[in-house]
Amino acid sequence: METTNHNIERKAPEDAYILSYDNPYSQELIRKLNERFMGTEATFPLFEEGEVYGGDMVRRAGIETILATDPNLKNLHIKPITPLDSELLLQERRLPKGGYFYESLGLILYDTSGINSKEARALYKNLGENLESLDITNSILRDRLLIVRPGLEKDPTMPYGIKFVVIPGLTKVYSPDVLNYDGEHSFEYGLDQGLPHVEGLDIGNRTICLPTKESKIGLNVLSKKHNLELDVTEVISNDKLVNLYNSITLAKYK
Description:
- There is one protein chain.
- 24% of the residues lie in helices and 21% in strands.
- The chain has 7 helices and 12 strands.
- Mean pLDDT is 91; it is low at 1-7.
């Protein structure tokens, strides 16, 4: 399995903030998102002010796609934070609102035959087609995977009118060991790409909720809940249903 070097120094991004309609570029960002993904579940209502709510994983991946591919917005160097950034910012007490809000942070690909199987199979195929861009070997695709910063493409054959895809040079794939565990565990911080190292399980006052052995698993969502729990048991439909008040944390990356 791909492992993470515990000794690599990690730095959280500066000036993290929650996406708001008041941000100077937000109106353009959401308008372009809605134009590109019209007729799908990836669009937002367009208001003049206030926080942008409803940032489930589908919409978050749409935001990633627009920020990474639109020539004007790409030059801002603004991106949604990664799961690891979220944990580092929380550790440094710089996560907005102290971290006490819902946020969908990444995808967990357990297998392609369980829940969300159509989206899972399409994503698995796309990962295999982008091994060089992802800097991984085909063997890692046999593991349980954390997909960070996936993008979107329109696909009318899919349940939500979209499919998750690799954004070359941006999307990353990891296989944290904790994904081979099940049930609930305490932990302190998730410093293995946003998930806890296995040696840090059952230590700390936060909780990570992993699927039970009896769960039907497939393509899941990694979420941080309002009480600072991490949850990898949600599926896309529940993520959209439950997380109507999901926020999206952005930061500028040099």
